Amino acid sequence: MTADSLPDGGSFTPVEGVNDPEAISGHGSLHLIYHANNDDGSPAGEAVLKVKSPSSGAFTLTDSNGGIVRAYLRADDSGNPIQNADGTYDLIVDPEAVGQTELHLTQEANGAYLPSHFVYDITVDPAPDIPPAPKLDKQVVNLTHPDGPTQPGDLLAYQVMASNEREGSVWEDALVTDQLPACLTLAADKPVHLTNNNTLAPFSGELTQVAAAADAPASGQYSVATAANGQQTLKFFMGDIIASTEQTPQSATVAFICRVNDDAPGQVLDNIATSPEAPASPESPNTPIAGPATPSGKPGEKVSPADPKKDDLALAKSFKNLTHPDATGVQVGDKVAYSCTFTNNGAANSSLLFAAVSDPLPSGLTFIPGTLQLTDAAGATHQVPDSAYHADSHTIALSLGSLPGGTSATLTFQCQVNPEALEQPLANQAYGTGTLPSDLPAEKPDPSNPDDPSDPDDPTNPTDPDDPSSPSDPTKPQVPEEPGLPVDPALFDEPLASSAPVEPDSVIPADATSKDMAITKEAANLSHTDATYEGDIIRYTLTAKALTPGAGWMEVVLRDQLPQGLDYVAGSAHLRDQGGTLYAPTDAIFDPATRTLAVYGGHLWGGHDLELTFEARVNHEGVGADIGNVAYLGGHKPSQWKENQPSDGDDPDKPNNPNSRGPKPGDPASGSELWDEFASSNLVIQSSVAYPVGADVTQGGAVLPAPDGKTVAPAGKVAIPKTGDESLLPGIIGLAVAALLGSGVVLQRRRS
């Protein structure tokens, strides 16, 4: 094979078997320069190679890299290769693109002729008079959060692709400059890799960093220049870049990784690559630019804050009694102020987005409208609408805005203590929630029209399904971005933070007047049902009630002074307090000297009652006398109530706890000083006069002598006589002697 004609700049170099006319194989090297077609479309740079073969066997022509040349054997109208008179065939090679390829011409065996195989190494160089058309493209992927927002510490993988869009040209020694945004730093521990698939001078491997200097980096190198403000400028040597063909893409791609700086939140991620050194042409007069590239694909994307750790989120709650500022407890009717402070103790670059606080109020508190006030993380004060109080769930729930690291938002509001506080625990706690930045969906542009205002991912579009301020958004956190707006209490099922329970040391009722309290007294004859006789046992029932919800007295005392005709029966007293607890007071509650029974009944407030029962025996002085008497109820006004010293085991750190200090229900309430105190404060009421059956003197009744002339003491009943009264002592001594001697003396009680 020989070269018959070559275009300007072309050359053919035989390698082997070319000059041997009998050779059945050959290898040659053809070097061409790209020529654009003539004005009439005819080829301008064809080369004609002569292939000599006496055989008429069929030819097969293959190309290892399609698109670089168009090669064919000259043929007749029927497509059959034409054999010249000298026994040669014309192989036409027309360069169509810059690059390298390998042609293989094979002729099948025919008759006495063996098969032959000829190989042509073809190189097409760019035309020196055709300027390149440089182009840059840039892409970035967030390796740390591929589907989420970009945050401090994230690794971003960049690719800058340099290409040449003009056939037959070369972009020589291409340099690409990338000035990183201030929020990024090149990851020095990650390699920088270049792939240039130029078939004339391919390169694939890591680039070596060189110092930034006046000279640009050379082949296999890149440089990093750092400005005084820390912003970095990268330069990459990309090599020669030729135009692509349909079969063979030709470009150079540099890949590098950047790390998002710690102080990056709020900074723009837009990143642009340029090539100021790229040659210009009339068709491409401007410097090629790629970008701005962002992980979301949206220009102007900003770095999101870092996630605060769950332990960095703290919620504190406190209360203050506004009605009684010095009190550690509360009284029904008091106004109390609550404060809830939600704090992000995390790093300065962290933030809790769409933060919110919730406070489910106990039933004993009534929210006071107009008192909701919020101080947000920026220090701005907001008057919160009353709609942030959800009456159906008795819960306050509202938005706080964002909580950057090291900031707090504080909610204050007021409540009034209502009667329910006496029945139900008044302890309550607040809850905080919000959205971690990494939980927000990544923004993605509309690939068909990213600037369309109807873009469904446009956060300025109120119908945006990914807009967290759109109430119809199924993926949003359902918390307004603006602070001080109502939110759904159901959002706090899994809070990020909660306060410790807050409760007053004690809850006491409102001050009751004597009209708010009542006492009744009933007398039941346990011995006879028809009349009352000497020796009968009378059971008295004293019932004290608080009539007004939430009002009452503290440490009430039940008092009953027995007339001369009645003797208290030892061990007969039983007390039920307002909570239903039963007590068996000792006989110390009765003072024989004054014939007065006085016992503490505990506290008593609206909706409750307590009951004291005791028994008395009608003595001889009662016959024909008036044994009717009344009971009294006295107590302390809660606002003036002062506890006694704590009993053993009580907590001295809670001085206002009504359940831990002072006398207990069933304790004796002896002494006149206490009763005088009650009386002077108008805190004493009395019952109506109580008579046993048939003994009401106002109705003509009277106590009758014993039916058989004898006084019979029921079994187990021992009356305590008045001081100095010896009339009952022989009976008491006789009972003791009978018990010792086993006598037949029987004391029996006749009951109704």
Record the SSE blueprint.
Elements (H helix, E strand, L loop, with lengths): L1 E4 L5 E6 L8 E9 L13 E6 L6 E5 L5 E5 L14 E8 L3 E9 L8 E10 L8 E9 L12 E10 L5 E10 L4 E3 L6 E4 L6 E4 L1 E4 L9 E6 L5 E11 L8 E10 L10 E4 L14 E5 L19 E9 L8 E2 L3 E10 L6 E10 L4 E3 L5 E3 L5 E3 L5 E2 L4 E10 L2 E11 L13 E5 L61 E2 L8 E2 L1 E2 L5 E9 L11 E10 L4 E11 L4 E4 L4 E3 L5 E2 L6 E2 L4 E10 L3 E10 L12 E6 L35 H9 L3 E3 L32 E2 L8 H13 L11
Parallel strand pairs: 3-9, 16-17, 23-34, 35-38
Antiparallel strand pairs: 1-4, 2-3, 4-7, 5-8, 6-7, 8-9, 10-11, 11-19, 12-18, 12-20, 13-19, 14-15, 14-19, 17-18, 20-21, 22-24, 24-31, 25-30, 25-32, 26-31, 27-28, 27-31, 29-30, 32-33, 36-37, 37-44, 38-43, 38-45, 39-44, 39-47, 40-41, 40-44, 42-43, 45-46
Keywords: Membrane, Transmembrane, Transmembrane helix
Protein name: DUF11 domain-containing protein
InterPro entries: DUF11_rpt, OmcB-like_DUF11
